[in-house]
Specification:
Elements: H1 4-12, H2 15-18, H3 27-44, H4 48-58, H5 66-73, H6 85-89, H7 95-104, H8 108-116, H9 119-128, H10 132-140, H11 151-168, H12 180-191, H13 195-198, E1 220-224, H14 228-240, E2 244-248, H15 253-268, E3 276-281, H16 285-293, E4 300-304
Parallel strand pairs: 1-2, 3-4
Helix pairs in contact: 1-11, 3-11, 4-5, 8-14
């Protein structure tokens, strides 16, 4: 597999194995987490043995091994289990239990990514259907190491898979990611009036980005009611940089209370500031909606309720 299309088609072909067991709407429950798992497995493979050595050497001697294990892995995440895809598949009778143990062996941040997929339930369904070994073997046969598949190409692969899932369900994939052609067009339009100026030396133009690109180092981005793809990308951003993406989704009342107290403390300390464009009284709510629909708002639009 030498090109992007071949890699996407290979991963998508897993659907042929699971079509009689999983509905089309559930294909992503199998393919997306295993794509992430295989990518991380390939990323950590070169330093796997070194991480195991450091873990065995320091276990019980330090309260927090994470910094040392991250240093050993070369990333902000690691895995301390003895397993990788090769070893998992060499013990087919215990594959389900071993994969679950493999996932538990990840650092907290990476384990959280996989838990968002509710992957343990998917593993059990695949095992009950006699498909788990076949699906795992399929993924083992694609090399997703960064030397083979760059981070940029991996992003394209993930977005194309999401497009295929939504296309199969007759949904608009644009609701889940912005096509690269649209991004290119937006950049060209944003810079069109400054082309002559930008050809000169030492010219700087600042572009407002309401997403993670606008965060300063160690900045925080609150992601409201995120989709699965957004949570995975947000977690990846958090792991690969000092910027942190905090997913905010449906939770229990007690969790909401705890989160609200935390946000209240941040606001009172001046560490969290809301960007408010305009405020409207409740009786002008229709006007507020019309303003939002223009697409010109530069922050939040607030409705005042007395």
């Amino acid at each position: 597999m030498n090109n992007f299309g071949e890699k996407v088609n290979f991963i998508w072909s897993v659907a042929d194995l699971i079509r009689d067991t999983f509905k089309r709407s559930k294909y992503q429950d199998v393919i997306l987490p295993l794509t992430v798992l295989r990518r991380i497995d390939c990323v950590l493979q070169p330093t796997k043995e070194h991480v195991l050595e450091i873990n065995a050497k320091l276990k019980g001697k330090l309260d927090n091994l994470a910094p040392q294990l991250c240093k050993a892995s070369g990333f902000s995440f690691y895995n301390t289990s003895l397993y990788d895809f090769e070893r998992l598949l060499s013990d087919a009778p215990h594959l389900e239990a071993n994969v679950k143990a493999y996932i538990i062996g990840f650092s907290d941040n990476m384990r959280e990514v996989l838990e968002k997929f509710d992957f343990n339930n998917t593993i059990s369904k695949l095992e009950e259907a006699g498909l788990f070994f076949l699906v795992m073997e399929k993924f083992k046969n694609i090399d997703l190491h960064p030397d083979v598949v760059s981070n940029l190409e991996m992003g394209y692969i993930f977005e194309e898979l999401i497009r295929k899932f939504n296309e199969a369900l007759n949904e608009n994939p644009g609701e889940h990611f912005t096509p690269r052609e649209v991004i290119r067009l937006m950049v060209n339009l944003a810079l069109a009036q400054d082309q002559e100026a930008l050809q000169q030396n030492h010219i700087v133009r600042t572009v407002y980005d309401p997403c993670c690109g606008s965060l300063t180092p160690n900045g925080r981005y609150l992601l409201a009611n995120p989709r699965m793809s957004q949570m995975v990308r947000g977690r990846w951003t958090s792991m690969r940089s000092s910027k942190k993406v905090i997913p905010w989704k449906a939770r229990t009342a007690s969790e909401y209370t705890e989160d609200c107290k935390f946000l209240k403390e941040l606001i009172e300390a001046g560490k969290l500031q809301s960007v408010i464009d305009r405020c409207y009284p409740l009786e002008q709510i229709a006007e507020a909606h019309r303003y939002v629909d223009t697409g010109h708002k530069k922050g939040n639009v607030v409705i005042k309720v007395k």
